[in-house]
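Action item from last week, closing it out:
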Amino acid sequence: MRVKVQLACTKCKRRNYSTMKNKKNTTGRIELKKYCPFDKEHTVHKESK
């Protein structure tokens, strides 16, 4: 089952991206390195509620 999740920047705490994840294969929270336009650099983005 695929669900839509929001990704929040760990530096500025803003929700910049949304993505889909498979709940059966990925039970934990996703962490991706993405570009944050507010910080103007690549930072780690974690799945938020």
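Closing note: The mean pLDDT is 94.
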